[in-house]
Amino acid sequence: MPTLRESTTAVVIRGEHVTDGFTSxxxxxxxxxxxxxxxxxLAPPVRPGGMIRLELSADGFNWATDGEPVALPKAEGExxxxxxxxxxxxxxxxxxMAEGSTVQLLATLHLKG
Length: 113
Fold this sequence. Notes:
single chain, mainly beta, Jelly Rolls, four-stranded antiparallel β-sheet, globular
């Protein structure tokens, strides 16, 4: 008999205005087998450009950058995503933008286990 897989959606940036160097709260995801990150631009950025880097941690305190960065959406309402595999126990996001830039984002992690 097939079993229903567990899943959850974690909102890690909830429409906040964020700047260069911003990091989301860590999210414990060790139970999950797969994850997808979605980014949605809620308002035009002060200066276009920038990226989000995914960071992984075994303990939630010490962080390592994973893979290629995800370019921020360019237009209001645009959505970009990245599939994530083999991510250990903790996930968080780190924003990299030009100094003085701000952006209003919605970022969600969708996890299945």
